[in-house]
Design goal:
This protein is an all-beta fold. The protein is built from one helix and 47 strands. The strands form 14 sheets. It has a six-stranded mixed β-sheet with strand order 39-47-46-41-44-43, with no helix packed on it. A five-stranded mixed β-sheet has the order 29-37-36-31-33, with no helix packed on it. A hairpin with a 2-residue loop joins β17 and β18.
């Protein structure tokens, strides 16, 4: 009996070897075909002819029969196996879950499946390696499989180079040379992708940003390498042109800043030089054709300019006239006839106006203010200061401070130029006793404060004129139950009995503001806060120099 079974098994195995090859659908495509329901018959010793109920209602597109097991492939790309499972041939591997199977094959006691990505999976008996997919198939595309009694077969598609698509190639470019060696040219390289849309690096030569020589250069752009590559070309043409030089420099004026830019063309950029004659004294010429400086001598200068580049030259002859400084007038505008307190700044600065002979304002002129008589100085103790006239012709001096000697002060304002009459300002320095400064003191703050808390009061000192005050001393005196904590303002001196400020001076119609924080005692009482101010200048209304407010500690 055993011999008969072996012979029968051998007959079956022999028949299995000659089964039809299972061809797969195209890679990435689910199984297709007519499909339908499955029918099985014959020996059912291992249930191989009993179609599983799980296939009911499903469309079967391929079947395979082993020695005693069966395989079915559905239109969904899933595999169902049944029958003998002694070698695991009917246990579909979990690795196929979620994958699309496109073909199946059954051997004696092993099974094969081909998935849509062209990969083969084997399971079941592996006594002869029939279920072990060779490593040589890794990464290759299998298109058909077959299973014999104890061996397996696969058809591998020939390898093809991936298709590369290159797009966005720049059009042919034309640029002007920027130097004798050509021009640096920047362009946007093309892009490339394979058939799946994945990007492929692109290399262009010469690269973007390179210096291209004069003439036409072909740029070669390559994506990929070897058979799997694509290329594109475009040209870059660098041109030259002969220089152009035009324009005419306008007249200038001695002592007035001058600038004129000649229009210069050509590629590469031309270099401009003086090739004959001479520029006006005080002026220089740059290689780009800019004439600038401050003329120092009147007259007409004749000269020739030449622009040169690698493509040729261009010349331009010029006659530039520099006019002498126009006759100017200087007159006082503001700040004259002031009476200033000794040692204090005059309230207004000195303002002179510069104009030409027709009365038109002259700007950019240097005006020199000089104390020619009397006791007064500019910053730094100097008796001389300068200022530049603005568009309206006015020039404003720095602060003029009265000296310590009473009397008249004379200040002149002059500008360079022959025959220009200076402007004269007359001021008066008043002694401290002759000067008048009407000071008024103010004191504001709450009418009450809680025990042990702080209160802030404000002191103001206003000079109502007519002259500047000098040597100001201001004091705040708190009454019983109040103690100074802190104070703001210029140079405060805080003690347990009060606060004192000193100020060197105060101009007319100006106000000083101080604040003081006081702490109240811990028992209720009514007290006062007083404030006084004094100046070394005569005050015509000293009654305004003191004040006092009542404050209740609750």
């Amino acid at each position: 009996m055993r011999a008969a079974l072996a012979a029968a098994a051998g007959a079956v195995l022999l028949a299995s070897v000659s089964t039809t090859v299972a061809a797969a659908a195209p890679v990435g495509v689910p199984p297709s075909g007519v499909g339908g329901t499955i029918t099985a018959w014959g020996s059912d010793s291992r249930g191989q002819s009993t179609v599983p109920a799980s296939l009911a209602g499903k469309t079967v597109t391929a079947v395979a029969a082993g020695l005693a097991h069966s395989l079915a492939l559905t239109s969904e790309g899933t595999v169902t196996a049944w029958g003998a499972n002694g070698s695991g041939q009917s246990s579909v591997p979990a690795s196929l879950a979620g994958k699309t199977v496109t073909a199946v094959a059954a051997g004696g006691n092993h099974s094969l499946a081909l998935t849509s990505d062209g990969a083969v999976t084997g399971w079941g008996s592996d006594l002869h390696g029939e279920s072990s997919v060779p490593a040589s198939l890794a990464g290759k595309t299998v298109t058909a499989i077959a299973a014999g009694g104890t061996h397996s077969l696969a058809i591998v598609a020939p390898a093809t180079a991936p298709v590369i698509i290159i797009t966005g190639t720049p059009g042919n470019l034309t640029v002007a040379a920027t130097s004798p060696s050509g021009a640096a040219v920047t362009y946007t390289p093309p892009t490339a992708t394979d058939v799946t849309g994945a990007p492929v690096p692109v290399t262009c030569a010469p690269a973007s940003g390179s210096v291209f020589p004069v003439g036409t250069t072909t740029v070669q752009c390559v994506a990929g390498n070897g058979p799997a590559s694509a290329s594109a070309t475009f040209t870059v043409t660098v041109t030259t042109s002969a220089p152009t030089l035009s324009g005419g420099a306008p007249a200038g004026t001695v002592g007035t800043p001058y600038r004129y830019a000649y229009p210069v063309g050509g590629a590469p950029a031309a270099v401009v030089t003086v090739t004959s004659g001479a520029l006006p004294a005080g002026l220089t010429l740059t290689q780009t054709g800019v004439l600038s400086g401050t003329p120092t001598q009147a007259g007409t200068s004749r000269f020739t300019l030449t622009a040169t580049n690698s493509a040729g030259t261009a010349t331009l002859t010029q006659a530039l006239t520099v006019n002498p400084v126009p006759v100017a007038t200087v007159t006082p505008a503001r700040g004259g006839n002031q009476a200033g307190t000794a040692g204090q700044p005059f309230v207004q600065p000195l303002v002179a106006r510069v104009a030409d002979a027709a009365g038109r304002p002259l700007s950019g002129r240097t005006v020199t203010f000089t104390v020619t008589a009397g006791s007064a100085t500019f910053p730094g103790g100097s008796r001389t200061a300068t200022a530049t006239s603005r568009a309206d012709g006015t020039a404003t001096s720095p602060v003029l401070t009265a000296g310590t000697t009473p009397g008249r002060v004379t200040v002149t304002a002059t500008v360079p130029g022959a025959g220009v009459t200076p402007a004269t300002f007359t001021e008066t320095v008043l002694s401290l006793t002759a000067a008048r400064a009407d000071l008024r003191i103010g004191l504001t703050g709450p009418a009450s404060v809680a025990r042990g808390r702080t209160v802030t009061v404000t002191v103001t000192v206003t000079n109502r004129g007519p002259n500047s005050a000098a040597g100001l001393t201001t004091s705040l005196t708190p009454g019983p139950g109040l103690t100074p904590v802190s104070a703001t303002g210029a140079n405060p001196v805080v003690t347990a009995t009060g606060v004192r400020w000193t100020q060197s001076g105060l101009a007319p119609q100006q106000t000083l503001t101080y604040t003081v924080t006081l702490r109240a005692a811990t028992r209720p009482q009514t007290t006062t806060v007083g404030a006084t101010t004094a100046t070394t200048v005569t005050d015509p209304n000293p009654a305004d120099n003191r004040t006092r407010n009542r404050l209740t500690i609750t």
